[in-house]
Amino acid sequence: MSDVPALPVPRLVLWRHGRTEWNAAGRFQGQLDPPLDEVGRRQARRAAPHLAAPLPEGTLVVSSDLGRAAETAVALTDVLGVPLRLDPRLREVDMGSWEGLTRQEVAERHPEQYADWLAGRPITGRGGEDSADVPARALAALRDLPEAPAAVVVTHGGTSARLIEALLGLGPEHRRVFGPLANCAWSELAEQSGRWRLLRHNTSAPDLPDGPVPPPQPGTRRPDAGASPEEGAPRHTQDADAL
């Protein structure tokens, strides 16, 4: 277990951006910058007041500078009446040659890389960014924040997952222990007694963008689950935002 990251804020809310057309199509985004689609914009507007309600006065909002995250963040800063901080260190994982491709295209063009990815092994030959570098840069961004009672960090599927693991002191062998954040869902962590605790995970506004959530049926997933390819399950094709 690694040392506990010391940050100038004792409470963090990690909020993933709303949906994009690429999310809906199962296309890997990485550090490319497709915008929110109309569903994603509605998700952000609906989630913002739910997210804002329990936040203490003086909460900071810091976001990845990619447009899909920044636009999501503005929905919250409009509610809170606070300025938005942008930091490129909170961007999604750079996925090299996979960016812009669907899961099926990656499987057809790079079958060995795809097999390694499904198995959770290191991916060679793809280019981009080593996943171990992601929490280092994201934590550096958080360490540069001013002291505050809380911060909302608006980021991406892969980056949020690596941050949660780093804050909880989980090593590479514990990757995929937590399911990835759905579009516009959030997780909350707090520093207590010298360590970080995960207080809630993958929380979302109670309604879907287009109406109330229907009662769950056995064996089905919520239609807004936004499963990330980080899960490594080929049937989960709604979203391809994370490593």
Automatic annotation (TrEMBL):
One of its GO terms (molecular function) is phosphatase activity. Residues 202-243 are annotated as: Disordered. InterPro entries: His_Pase_superF_clade-1, His_PPase_superfam, PGM_Phosphatase. CDD domains: HP_PGM_like. Substrate binds at R16, H17, G18, R19, T20, E21, W22, N23, R68. Residues 232-243 have a biased composition (Basic and acidic residues). Residues 209-218 have a biased composition (Pro residues). GO terms for cellular component: cytoplasm. The active site is at H17, E92. Coiled coil: none annotated. This is Phosphoglycerate mutase. It comes from Geodermatophilus obscurus (strain ATCC 25078 / DSM 43160 / JCM 3152 / CCUG 61914 / KCC A-0152 / KCTC 9177 / NBRC 13315 / NRRL B-3577 / G-20).
